[in-house]
Amino acid sequence: MSSPAGAPASRIAAFAEHASGLTGRRFGVASLEEYDALWAWSVEEIDSFWSAVADHLDMSLPGPALAEERMPGAVWFPEARVNYAAAVLAGRPTGEVAVVGVTEDPDATVELTWAELERRVAGLAGTLRALGVGAGDRVVGYLPNTPDAIVAFLATASLGAVWSVCGMDYAASAATARFGQLDPVVLVHAESYVHGGRTHDRRDVVAEIRDALPSLRATLTVGTPAWEDAIGAPHPFEPVPVPFDHPLWVLFSSGTTGKPKGIVHGHGGAQLEQAKVAAYHFDLGPGERLFWFTTPSWMMWNFLVGGLLTGASVVTYDGSPAHPGVDGLWALTARHGVTVTGMSPGYVAAGQKAGVGPAGHDLSRLRRVGISGSTFPASSHEALQDDLGPHVQICSISGGTDVVSAFVGPVPGLPVWPGELSRPLLGVALDAFGPDGSPVRGEVGELVVTRPMPSMPLMFWADDDGARYHDAYFDTFPGIWRHGDWITVTDRGSIAIHGRSDATLNRNGIRMGSGDIYEPVEALPEIREALVIGLEEQGGGYWMPLFVVLDDDIDLDEALIARIKDAVRTHASPRHVPDEVLRAPGIPHTRTGKKLEVPVKKVLADQDLGGAYDPGSVDAPELLDWFRRVGRERRAALGR
User: Fold this and answer.
1) How far apart are CA 410 and CA 422, in angstroms?
2) What is the pLDDT of residue 609?
3) How far apart are the C-alpha atoms of 65 and 67, rounded to whole Å?
């Protein structure tokens, strides 16, 4: 357990004092007990809580916070008029740095002051307005993670138009599977992106995307003289006030087993929720600097942009996390004076196996390390904490594209237990439900949210009757958000995340999340990555193979197989020792790095992934063919 100092001076402590003054109750965050009392108030008196947040963060949101409580369809701040871009840019110190743009070439770093960011946003907004873009129109981006992507988003949002973006590693088919649903009027794109020491030319892909979008009125190419004219046009910054629930952006689901779902969030909900998390749970504000390794395809890009709402500066990065070495993100964090840096468990584990990490880098400004994307093994957490020292808090979070935020995560100054997340975040009425819909403690349950959050989706795109939205979250427990993750709420109130409930391992009625298997297996030095699948078979059988990826010079011999099984038996569960350990050429992932557990389970069973499946949504789609062959060969050997 680690418990970094800093709670008394934190922004969440200031909010607790603010809430005390409003309610006449005594709130604080100096202990877990004090935080739990503040959290309980935040989910029991939800209208008062969100009004207090808006007041404390200087947001002008008049009237009731939660005018109508229902899920789905809660009505938030119906009297308010807002604009996300205005909230980002209002009242900032003009000469201070807002955005730092970094590539694999350190000499190519770009810094934008708040004044320059506003000037570019205003210029591009004026250009878009001249192209006929107005409230509700869709503007899409095919872009790397650079300051230009932030400018394009904020300019779009300032007009009340709707933004959507894909990173440039997406194939044309994957991008058009998303953008084609939106009938966009403008495409903003770059011509290339950087990764692993190479510049990847994507002009042919851009041409294919453009040809597939007949609704386009114009395209704008970043890095050209026309782009410089577009962002340099002398226009005043005139953001359009819109209702709290006016659509801000469309984020898309992975699209690996069906047509990508367009998840629509509102200006006010995204602004309020993201500012709360950034300010109170990551203690971000003026003078702080946020970096998170991400691409524009992943909701962590939206989370990164949300850091600007607090007045903090943000760092964008177009490149590989392991360039020029495995410790590339630590070097970037040190070089740019980052105070909160974010990365994936896989990146941390790769560095630990390679024997490199934060050591040797000047991280004197670093106060928090965010972890997201998958479960973070306790062993990795412990080793990273030893490297960083007790003054840096490790901040694992869990949430999703669905709410473009987190449900659970850190509290400044309060304990963090390896392998667990400290607490539900303020305003998140999180619980764990058993199959009968009652709360469970100390055992695995479904992650549910029992009261609305402002950033829950307004709707799914082109889901006119709301049926897809309802079925995605509310079909299991009526009126209760079921997220699709297995969690355990421990006796001390922390939360352990076990993985997706649709990929649950259920052997002999005993459930376990795949993340509990990956932690001990991927800690073995020979294992680069692992994938475990639980497959129901004919006649009531159950096959649970474990696929492992090894370096070429490592043999999967009986001794290694025995060590793998012993690791699962000892550190996870003797009931979930795999039936077989098989060497795989690789593990397929979504473009945001999540293992394709459910699609692999389907192809092992020789099921059709559906006509809407798009290989462009997967980093290595050919691997699915390999897994399908494995399933077929197994059935043939068994005479099925």
Assistant:
1) 6
2) 78
3) 6
Torsion of CA 56, 57, 61, 65, to 10 degrees: -60
Residue ranges for the chain with pLDDT beneath 70: 1-8, 255-258, 502-504, 506, 508-511, 538-540, 610-613
- 27 within 8 A of 38, measured Cβ to Cβ: yes
136 residue type, one letter: G
The whole-angstrom separation of Cα 634 and Cα 114 is 60
CA angle 371, 374, 379 (to 5 degrees): 70
DSSP code, position 442 = S
Query: H or E segment at 221?
Result: strand 218-221
Peptide bond into 324 cis (omega under 30): yes
* Alpha carbon distance 494, 568 (integer Å): 23
Q: How far apart are CA 613 and CA 621, in angstroms?
A: 11
DSSP H or E stretch at residue 423: strand 423-424
Pick the CATH number of 504-637 from 3.10.129.10, 3.30.300.30, 3.30.70.120, 3.40.50.720: 3.30.300.30
Q: How far is CA 524 from CA 243, 387, 541, 565, in A?
A: 52, 19, 30, 11
d(CA 215, CA 219): 11
* Residue 383 CB contacts under 8 Å (≥ 6 apart), including other chains: 352
- Which is nearest to 527 in space by CA: 554, 506, 500, 488? 554
**Between the CA of residue 573 and those of 463, 510, 524, 605, what are the distances in Å?**
42, 10, 17, 25
Write down the domain spans for the chain.
12-489, 504-637
Q: What 8-state DSSP symbol labels residue 538?
A: G
The predicted pLDDT at position 5 comes to: 45
Residue linked to tokens 């309060």: 414
Instruction: Report DSSP letters for 265-295, one per residue.
Output: EEHHHHHHHHHHIIIIIS---TT-EEEE---
Please spell the DSSP secondary structure of 343-387, one letter per residue.
E-HHHHHHHHHHT-SSTTS--TT--EEEE-SS---HHHHHHHHHH
- The CATH architecture of the domain made up of 12-489 is 3-Layer(aba) Sandwich (3.40)
Instruction: Tell me the per-residue pLDDT of 61-89, one tens digit each, with 9 for 90 and over.
Output: 998 999 999 999 999 999 999 999 999 99
- Write 294-297 long-range contacts (CB < 8 A, 24+): 294/145, 294/342, 295/144, 295/145, 295/167, 295/169, 295/591, 295/592, 296/141, 296/143, 296/144, 296/145, 296/149, 296/165, 296/166, 296/167, 297/165, 297/166, 297/167, 297/169, 297/170, 297/591, 297/592
pLDDT in tens, 270-284: 999 999 999 999 999
Q: Which tokens sit at 88?
A: 């980002």
pLDDT at 411: 97
Kind plus residue range of the DSSP H or E element containing 81: strand 81-82
What SS3 state is found at 550?
A: strand
Q: Looking at beta carbons, which pairs linking 23-29 to residues 24 or more positions away fall under 8 Å?
A: 23/48, 29/411, 29/412, 29/413, 29/414
Evaluate whether 375 touches 515 at the Cβ level (below 8 Å).
yes
Residue 489's DSSP bridge partners are 495
Whose tokens are 């963060």? That residue is 57
Q: What pTM value is reported for the model?
A: 0.86
